[in-house]
From TrEMBL:
Superkingdom of origin: Bacteria
Keywords: Oxidoreductase
Keyword presence, Cell division: no
Name under which the protein is recorded: NADPH-dependent curcumin reductase CurA
Domain Enoyl reductase (ER): 15-327
Length: 332
């Protein structure tokens, strides 16, 4: 067996040295526990925050201890009545090839519903983040303009498509031509902005002739300054992520958004997907229906091999992923 530990608290951008691999024994399980073989492992931007020793909505990872995150795996041994050998499960597990888990911390994945990897993407945490953040806070109405940053990622791709389903005009902001083409041609976004090439403020003005009614913010920083300069009266901003700031060594001081909120009577609300935990079944059901009807498409960027978990994680900050970034650790 093998596991990945946090080797250092990164200053600025993490590197391969942030992680160490360690060979360990196979865990033995007790009554009520399950041994899980990791099949897919999720790397997520929020994990960067957990590498700092600061207060947040989840406790920090501990130095020289195993990192944990979303995993889809197969039950290889069970001492819990509720799980049988061979079943596919998901949960927050340690970054190990094989890990043990208490049965109450695992959920079953139905392999007949959709590919099992989707439990970490469109039918899992990122899909639910898009669903509840957009619909509960953003509340897009037909004909309104919705702008989403980080548009080609796990959350952003789903936000844009739900906004289209609700009849909004959708503008996506992303960082490469390939992503821009995908959003426009495959997902049907109405307009797209390449923040690495375009003058973002001018491009937002051009792409949103009627102003911005909903801004789903995945990135923060200058991109968000540009979008919030174009808000309409009563605009809503679901504040989902700030990836442009996660690796900064000094606080970022930009144009402050408060005046824009004030003069537009706008709402900006931060949220954590877990706030909606009680409504997850409803969210998964609706997302599942949309996926089955072909109204929501999803893309996965799958890196093969446990040894490539660190580089897949680092790739999130270089924009290497189109859609959900996953690591395939083993075959079923
Ligand atoms: P993504 O799949 O969107 O991957 C990250 C993407 O962010 C990259 O592909 C890259 O795309 C973009 N990016 C990286 N660095 C920068 C930068 N400096 N400026 C602008 N864009 C950048 O990740 P997720 O969909 O999983 O997460 C998206 C956001 O939502 C993150 O901020 C995350 O923390 C947040 N989040 C919040 C949750 C909540 O509960 N509130 C839950 C889940 C996610 P590009 O090529 O376009 O630069």
């Amino acid at each position: 067996n093998e596991q990945i530990l946090l080797a250092e608290r990164p200053k600025g951008m993490p590197t391969e040295q942030t992680f160490t691999f360690e060979k360990v024994d196979m865990p033995s399980i007790n009554e009520g526990e399950v041994l899980v073989k990791t099949l897919y492992l999720s790397v997520d931007p929020y994990m960067r925050g957990r590498m700092n020793d600061t207060k947040s909505y989840v406790p920090p990872f501990q130095l020289n201890e195993v990192i944990s995150g979303g995993i889809v795996g197969k039950v290889v041994e069970s001492k819990a009545d509720s799980f049988q050998e061979g079943e596919i499960v998901t949960g927050y597990l340690e970054w190990k090839r094989y890990s043990k888990a208490s049965a109450k911390h695992l959920q079953k994945v139905d392999p007949n519903l959709a590919p099992i990897s989707t439990a970490l993407g469109v039918l899992g945490m990122p899909g639910l983040t898009a669903y509840f953040g957009l619909l509960d806070i953003g509340q897009p109405k037909e004909g309104e303009t919705v702008v989403v940053s980080g548009a080609a990622g796990a959350v952003g791709t789903i936000v844009g498509q739900i906004a289209k389903i609700k009849g909004a005009r959708v503008v996506g902001i992303a960082g490469s031509q390939e992503k821009i083409d995908y959003l426009k041609n495959e997902l049907g976004f109405d307009a797209v902005i390449n923040y690495k090439e375009d003058d973002v403020k001018q491009a937002v003005k051009d792409a949103c002739p009627n102003g911005v009614d909903v801004y789903f913010d995945n990135v923060g920083g200058e991109i968000s300054d540009a979008v919030t300069s174009q808000l309409n009266k009563f605009a809503r901003i679901p504040l989902c992520g700030q990836i442009a700031l996660y690796n900064l060594e000094k606080a970022d001081i930009g144009p402050r958004v408060q005046r824009q909120l004030l003069i537009n009577s706008a709402l900006m609300k931060g949220f954590i997907v877990g706030d909606y935990a009680e409504q997850f079944p409803e969210g998964i059901k609706q997302l599942g229906e949309w996926v089955q009807q072909g109204r929501i498409k999803y893309s996965e960027n799958i890196v093969e091999g446990f040894e490539n978990v660190p580089s897949a994680f680092l790739g999130l900050f270089k924009g290497e992923n189109l859609g959900k970034q996953l690591v395939k650790v083993a075959d079923q």
